[in-house]
């Protein structure tokens, strides 16, 4: 194994696993592979290379895996962070604590619009839901009124499919679309209550273009 700069012994302590500034190779603290610097994210700020490792401990691939696992470990906290990020992007400070945010989560963990159980995709299906595809049952932090900024008074937790259908529509648009679709996609003369619609939808397994992903 090559020595680090100035011929010193390889650094192997828990904070700075081995690296070599001359060959620009470094050991990943997770997978233990020795990879080129290009496979890592660089440390921010100025560092003295002879005493500080210039790249992060884990390679990009391992870092992504760990981040993915952490996000799935506590989806509610992940969505709270997302809520804060949306508010920040709109130029506002977060107006609720994490404990207050949990009060907005549906009590039965089901989308209040479509009735689907809120959940993340199975870990073994990860490759299926990349490249712009979204798991239809993933919980989303949604603007109730798309014309207003995110806030505690304009917040709801719904599934991605409901968010996708609702998009940035306002009630008048949804009403007109509803009337049109009743005419062109008649389902009979029965009058269903909301719960019946939700049951029917759940039993059908229909989630639009995501229905036949197997």
Explain the overall architecture.
- With 214 residues, the protein is α+β, with helices and mostly antiparallel strands.
- It folds into two domains: 5-65, 2-Layer Sandwich (Wheat Germ Agglutinin (Isolectin 2), domain 1); 74-170, Herpes Virus-1.
- The protein is 31% helix and 12% strand.
- The protein is built from six helices and seven strands; from the N terminus they run E-E-E-E-E-H-H-H-E-E-H-H-H.
- The chain has helices at residues 60-73, 75-89, 98-102, 160-166, 171-184, 194-204; strands at 19-20, 25-27, 34-36, 40-42, 55-59, 139-143, 155-159.
- The strands form three sheets. Strands 1-2-3 form a three-stranded antiparallel β-sheet, with no helix packed on it.
- The longest helix is centred in the middle third of the chain and has 15 residues, at 75-89.
- It is elongated, with a radius of gyration of 24 Å.
- The protein starts with 18 loop residues before the first strand and ends in a 10-residue tail after the last helix.
- Assign a percent range to the helix content: 25-40%
Oligomer: single chain
> So how many helices?
6
Distance between the termini: 46 Å
Task: Round the mean pLDDT to the nearest integer and report it.
Answer: 82
What is the H-and-E element order? Answer: EEEEEHHHEEHHH
What's the number of domains?
Answer: 2
Calculate Rg over CA atoms. Answer: 24 Å
Main sheet summary: 3 strands, antiparallel
Task: Please indicate the percent range of residues in DSSP E strands (runs of 2 or more).
Answer: 5-15%
CATH T-level fold name of the largest domain: Herpes Virus-1
Q: Strand sequence of the main sheet, in spatial order?
A: 1-2-3
Low-confidence stretches: 1-14
Please state the structural category. Answer: alpha+beta
Class of the largest domain, according to the CATH hierarchy? Alpha Beta
Please state the overall shape, judged from the principal axes of the Cα atoms. Answer: elongated
Give me the CATH architecture of the largest domain, please: 2-Layer Sandwich
């Amino acid at each position: 194994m090559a020595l680090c700069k100035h011929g010193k012994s390889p650094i192997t302590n828990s904070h700075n696993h081995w690296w070599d500034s001359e060959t620009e190779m470094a050991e990943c603290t997770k997978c233990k592979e020795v990879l080129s610097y290009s496979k890592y994210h660089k440390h921010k700020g100025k560092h003295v290379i002879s005493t500080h490792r210039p790249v992060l401990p884990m390679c990009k691939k391992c870092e992504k895996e760990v981040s993915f696992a952490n996000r799935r470990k506590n989806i509610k906290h992940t969505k709270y962070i997302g809520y804060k990020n949306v508010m920040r992007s709109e130029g506002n400070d977060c107006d609720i604590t994490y404990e207050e945010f949990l009060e907005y989560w549906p009590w039965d963990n089901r989308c209040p619009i479509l009735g689907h159980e809120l959940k993340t995709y199975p870990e073994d299906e990860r490759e299926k839901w990349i490249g712009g595809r979204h798991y239809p049952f993933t919980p989303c932090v949604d603007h109730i009124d798309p014309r207003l900024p995110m806030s505690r008074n304009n917040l709801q937790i719904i599934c991605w499919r409901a968010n996708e259908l609702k998009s940035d529509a306002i009630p008048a648009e949804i009403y007109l679309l509803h009337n049109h679709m009743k005419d062109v996609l008649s389902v009979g003369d029965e009058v269903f209550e909301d719960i019946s619609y939700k049951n029917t939808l759940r039993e059908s397994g229909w989630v639009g273009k995501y229905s036949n992903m197997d």
